[in-house]
Amino acid sequence: MLLESTQVYSDRGPYLNPSDHPYEINDDDFEDEDDDDENDEEDDFDAMECDKTQEPSYMDQAWAVARVVIGMVIMALAVFFMASAASADETAILTIAYEASSQSFEGQVAVASVIKARMERSGKSAKETVLKPYQFSCWNPKTHQPAQKRKLSQREIDMAKKAWAAARPGAFDHYCRYDCRPLWAKSAKKSVRIGDHVFYKI
């Protein structure tokens, strides 16, 4: 007598319980997938709403552009003032080189100190101080040929730069060569000789 078999066969072998069949379809699975799809749609909608609320306003964008422009203007002004200061110092450095390049470093610092003392007293820039008429012989066409005709070496310029950086407003505000006797020197309160120059306090 043949027994009815409850086994289900597949290409992977027999299954004793039909519910264990690999191809068995469960309705609950479809319900879960539908729920997941609905949840995904809700998450996408929430993300869109979140992105919409975080979008910068027109005022925020305008302020960001304004900050960039302001920063660029500040940088441009800083560069301009630095260039102006460098140009003014450059004229003083040339003066030191023309007037005292043959002197010791101490003598060059003393010349730079005279320039800074006059700047402090007058409140003028280095360029205005050294280019004031008849103050420094290297810029005075009546007492000396224009100094610009003589080409300075890089060594002379470098030494003058160091002297200018090291100098502070000193006790003396005039100087001349030791073999000169200008009229203003007669009223000097004190004097000291450094190299070929005599420095005076008027």
Explain what this protein looks like in three dimensions:
It is a single chain. This protein is mainly alpha-helical and 202 residues long. It has a domain at 68-201. 53% of the residues lie in helices and 10% in strands. The chain contains 5 helices and 5 strands. The chain has helices at residues 27-54, 58-100, 105-122, 126-130, 154-166; strands at 8-10, 13-15, 174-177, 190-194, 197-201. The strands form 2 sheets. It has a 3-stranded antiparallel β-sheet, covered by helices on one side. Strands 1-2 form a two-stranded antiparallel sheet. A hairpin with a 2-residue loop joins strand 1 and strand 2 (13-15). The N and C termini lie far apart (143 Å).
Keywords:
202 residues, mainly alpha, three-stranded antiparallel β-sheet, two-stranded antiparallel ribbon, disordered N terminus
The percent range for strand residues is 5-15%
What does the radius of gyration come to? Answer: 45 Å
- Category by helix and strand content: mainly alpha
The total of beta strands comes to 5
Query: Residue-averaged pLDDT, rounded?
Result: 75
Anisotropy-based shape = elongated
Give the neighbour order of strands across the main sheet: 3-5-4
* Major beta-sheet overview: 3 strands, antiparallel
Order of H and E elements: EEHHHHHEEE
What's the number of helices?
5
- The poorly predicted ranges are 1-18, 20-25, 78-86
User: Percent of residues in helical segments?
Assistant: 40-55%
- Terminal Cα separation, in Å? 143 Å
